[in-house]
Each structure stands twice: as C-alpha cells, then as structure tokens.
User: What shape does this take?
Amino acid sequence: VRFVESGGGLVQPGGSLRLSCLASGFTFGAYGMSWYRQAPEKARELVAAISSAGGSTKYADSVKGRFTISRDNAKNTVYLQMNSLKPEDTAVYYCNAGFSRAWYPDSWGQGTQVTVSS
Assistant: This one.
C-alpha cells in the first residue's frame, strides 16, 4: 500500500491550493478516502473524507465551506481543493484509505507541506 501526496506549497492568506494523492496497492474504488493534516506539536486530524463512489463527503468544522474533497477512481487519485486558506491551515497533509478511520495506519506517505503565510 502506498500513498503519494503532492500539490502543497507556500500561499498567502486567502489563497488556494489543490492537493493530490495517488494511491496504490489496494482496490482504490472499494474504499472511502480521507485527507488528514498534522500541524507542529499537534495530533493528526481528519480534514475531509469521501465515500468509495464519491456520493458522500464529510468535513471538519474548521474547513467546511472552504475545502472540497473529490476523487477519480480511474486514476486512483483523491483531491483536496483548498480555498480561502488561513494561517491555521498550515500543516503537513496526508491521505489514507477509509471514511471514518485510516485503514492503513502503518502506510502513511511523506505528506505534502502547506504553509499559509504573508
């Protein structure tokens, strides 16, 4: 099982980024997928999740209305569109399989750093 996250970077407050996660090693279309983030000295938290077919999504209260999760099962890829970014969104962002919990907690990728700063 492997997750490869990309798309992070440095952005000013109010800006946007689109993250991508390419997954392999399992039947991608059979699993919900989630994005997590971990800020310095904080625990990893669930940011957004999407069901296997994409019909259901959920978001942390802190990102509702600003972030959108989507997926392309033909490409084994899940996306996170992040708009109206705030400094408190600064973190390393990871993806994993699952809608409510990480199905592969021993297979985290390297993550992608998002820094929101002026």
Remarks:
- The chain has a mean pLDDT of 97.
- Strands lie at 2-6, 9-11, 17-24, 33-38, 45-50, 57-59, 67-72, 77-82, 91-97, 112-116.
- Residues 20 and 79 are 5 Å apart (CA to CA).
